[in-house]
């Protein structure tokens, strides 16, 4: 009897596949999931063999690409050092080939494309019987098809730059991880200002790259698709990255406001550039902050931002100080360029008259530095030279009077 019961209770091949997927598979590779469960990412971070399988996996749909990159992003934001090292090594050795192969083999299999085929088929079916209705339907459906194409292009474009962002995190992991602890990647005991500005501008580049995602998010949240859920999770993760790096920049630049007048000219100009860039970043991040209800289900999970604000009076003082520095720097630059002028030619000619040996080369030997100009002026306008010039003019006047007589 037990043998007969076992025959009736044998599962079909499809049921076996479903059981295997539930036992082995995860939401990262399972097409039934449009999002990724955080529990699966935690398992992936601890089980390096499964992580290696995900790294080698070739995604077939755009949803799989989103879930795969999102999983890498979460791991890079975590403290699982072994999993992070494996991802860094992967992008270091395979990032160029993987990027090309992903762009070539990706096939978008979503409900959007099925709907496009269905609506176009309806147009051809109605051509014979309903000409007038067909014309009106054609206009409406054509607009709808164009919208679906724009949605598809928006998701594909965002997927490409998001994958590029994961590559940038892997390449600049020292900056990315250090900002989480509100410190520089490498501590410098000598307080090298040049190195400090270098790190700040690199962080700004990463932050500006993330803020360029805002138009993609705005379009996707307005025109929702099956990928909107995973894009919402990605937006929340990118927003948290923005807050971390923005807070570090705000603290560092705010500390500089008390001592910028002690900087050298080049450092002061770089500091002023940081302020202008920070104002622009604040405006962009404000737009992202106002979108938080679209990607954060719990508003309490998105904390308020402490914005970078400079009082108007202090900003005017900085503007005046930088204007004076630019003016001073311009005058010094002009002094270093000793271009021959008519005044220099006359002065050299007068000097040559005093020394006949220099008459032949007087037009070639012009002052090239401020020190030489000062020496030549002292020679020309010394009291002894002025007396000689007056005597010479007096003797020439006497000779003229004698000729007139």
Key descriptive features of the protein:
74% helix; elongated; Methane Monooxygenase Hydroxylase, Chain G, domain 1; mainly alpha; 18 helices; 405 residues; single chain
In short:
The protein has helices spanning 2-8, 13-24, 38-46, 48-56, 62-76, 81-105, 111-125, 131-171, 173-180, 193-211, 214-222, 228-256, 265-290, 292-295, 312-336, 342-354, 370-380, 383-404. With 405 residues, the chain is mainly alpha-helical. Helix 3 (38-46) crosses helix 4 (48-56), helix 4 runs parallel beside helix 6 and helix 10 runs antiparallel to helix 12 (228-256).
Verbal overview:
- With 405 residues, the chain is an all-alpha fold.
- Among the domains are: 172-337, Methane Monooxygenase Hydroxylase, Chain G, domain 1, CATH 1.20.58.150; 342-393, no CATH class.
- The chain is built from 18 helices and no strands.
- It has helices spanning 2-8, 13-24, 38-46, 48-56, 62-76, 81-105, 111-125, 131-171, 173-180, 193-211, 214-222, 228-256, 265-290, 292-295, 312-336, 342-354, 370-380, 383-404.
- Helix 10 (193-211) runs antiparallel to helix 12.
- The longest helix is centred in the middle third of the chain and has 41 residues, at 131-171.
- The radius of gyration is 37 Å and the shape is elongated.
- The protein starts with a helix and ends with a helix.
């Amino acid at each position: 009897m037990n043998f007969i019961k076992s025959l009736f209770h044998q599962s079909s091949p499809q049921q076996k596949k479903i059981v295997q997927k539930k036992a082995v598979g995860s939401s990262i590779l399972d097409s039934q999931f449009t999002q990724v469960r955080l529990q699966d990412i935690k398992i992936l971070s601890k089980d390096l063999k499964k992580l290696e399988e995900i790294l080698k996996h070739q995604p077939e749909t755009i949803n799989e690409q989103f879930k795969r990159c999102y999983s890498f992003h979460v791991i890079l934001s975590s403290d699982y050092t072994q999993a992070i090292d494996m991802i860094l090594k992967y992008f270091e050795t395979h990032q160029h080939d993987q990027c090309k192969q992903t762009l070539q083999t990706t096939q978008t299999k979503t409900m959007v494309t099925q709907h496009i085929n269905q609506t176009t088929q309806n147009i051809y079916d109605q051509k014979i019987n309903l000409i007038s209705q067909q014309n009106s339907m054609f206009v409406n459906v054509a607009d709808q098809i164009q919208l679906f194409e724009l949605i598809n292009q928006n998701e594909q474009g965002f997927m490409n730059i998001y994958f590029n962002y994961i590559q940038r995190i892997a390449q600049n992991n020292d900056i990315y991880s250090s900002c989480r602890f509100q410190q520089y990647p490498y501590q410098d005991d000598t307080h090298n200002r040049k190195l400090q500005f270098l790190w700040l501008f690199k962080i700004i580049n990463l932050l500006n790259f993330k803020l360029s995602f805002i138009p993609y998010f705005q379009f996707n949240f307005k025109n929702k698709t099956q990928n909107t859920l995973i894009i919402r999770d990605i937006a929340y993760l990118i927003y948290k990255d923005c807050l971390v790096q923005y807070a570090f920049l705000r603290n560092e630049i705010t500390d500089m406001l008390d001592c910028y007048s002690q900087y050298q000219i080049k450092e002061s100009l770089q500091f002023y550039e940081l302020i202008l860039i920070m104002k622009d970043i604040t405006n962009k991040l404000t737009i992202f902050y106002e979108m938080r209800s679209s990607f954060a289900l719990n508003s309490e999970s998105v904390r308020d931002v402490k914005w970078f604000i400079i009082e108007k009076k202090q900003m005017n003082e900085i503007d005046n100080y930088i204007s004076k520095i630019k003016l001073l720097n311009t005058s010094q630059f002009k002094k270093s360029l000793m271009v021959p002028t008519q005044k220099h030619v006359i002065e050299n000619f007068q000097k040559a008259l005093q020394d006949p040996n220099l008459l032949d080369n007087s037009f070639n030997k012009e002052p090239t530095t401020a020190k030489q100009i000062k020496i030549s002026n002292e020679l020309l306008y010394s009291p002894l030279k002025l007396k000689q010039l007056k005597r010479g003019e007096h003797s020439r006047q006497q000779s003229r009077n004698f000729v007139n007589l």
